[in-house]
Write a structure and sequence with these properties.
Length: 288
């Protein structure tokens, strides 16, 4: 059996640019990944199958298998490499869905990594990233699970900054946030948005990280807040927690996050969020 973690993706910032000729938005973002998240397990089998367990598995029980990113990733990899192997895949769904933290994308990326090992495939990183991008714009960045600068529509990746030790508290007010309507609201408000620019962060300490991220933003946050005002309450709660370096929404929402320099501070924020009945996760980040 091969086991791969599928960590939550956090957009430390997200700048949205114009719509491209292919209908996708130009964007600029810095992705970081938690250590905790979903879990993919794969075993040899004659055919491809998927079983879903975990606290959020019930939300996927009515999804047709052909629409599940995990199975789509497995089939795409098999088709690209010509393998006739199968696999019994188990997804431990610990992260909320439609939450702005790339749960499905991370699951697909973990599936690709796991099956490359299970099937003993000789495939380049570039080819694997190309397969990933056909499945979703966030999936190539989720392959490495390390800080990464993301631009283009998600296909242009460069190594992210070397971050200091960080812990994150992720909080979702148990609101599903459909990505499409949030982007549409952004488009209605920004007929000609400026180009999306990356923030120049290299090796950094806490002060440089704070100042760099403070000058950035999540362009989708105001529109997600209009759709679900509770998001503003979550961001404000996290910003007020002792030791919070920065707080904002991730992706198109509704999950928000705060960064901390200590595990204790992140866990304290998580406990506070739970007192409101919100879902929360405290986790160390992959910083290299």
């Amino acid at each position: 059996m091969i086991v791969e973690n599928a960590p939550a993706k956090i957009n430390l910032y997200l700048h949205i640019g114009p719509v491209r000729s292919d209908g996708l938005h130009d964007l600029a973002s810095l992705f970081a990944f938690t250590e905790k998240g979903d879990v993919i397990r794969v075993e040899n089998s004659r055919s491809l199958s998927l079983k879903i367990s975990g606290p959020f598995s019930h939300l996927l029980k009515d999804l047709p298998p052909e629409n599940n990113l995990v199975l789509r990733a497995a089939r795409a990899l098999a088709a690209h490499t010509g393998t006739e192997h199968g696999a019994k895949i188990t997804l431990g769904k610990n992260l909320p869905i439609a939450a702005g933290i790339g749960g499905g994308s991370a699951d697909a990326a973990a599936t690709l990594r796991a099956l490359v090992k299970l099937w003993h495939l000789d495939i380049s990183d570039a080819s694997l990233a190309s397969i990933a991008f056909t499945l979703g714009a966030d999936i190539p960045a989720c392959l490495a699970r390390a800080p990464v600068n993301v631009s283009g529509a998600g296909e242009v990746l460069t190594k992210g900054p070397m971050l200091p030790p960080l812990w994150a508290c992720l909080v979702n007010p148990r609101v599903e946030m459909p990505t499409g309507p949030i982007f549409q609201a952004f488009d209605r408000a920004h007929k000609n948005p400026p180009a999306a620019d990356l923030i120049p962060l290299a090796t950094t300490n806490y002060n440089l990280l704070h100042s760099g991220l403070k000058s950035a933003r999540n362009d989708l946050e105001p529109f997600a807040q209009k759709h679900a005002p509770v998001i503003g309450n979550v961001v404000d709660m996290l910003a007020g927690m002792p030791g919070a370096l920065i707080s904002r929404m991730s992706g198109s929402g509704a999950t928000c996050f705060a960064l901390f320099s200590s595990k204790m501070s992140a866990e304290r924020a998580s406990q506070r969020a739970h007192s409101f009945g919100w879902w929360a996760l405290a986790s160390r980040l992959h910083v290299r």
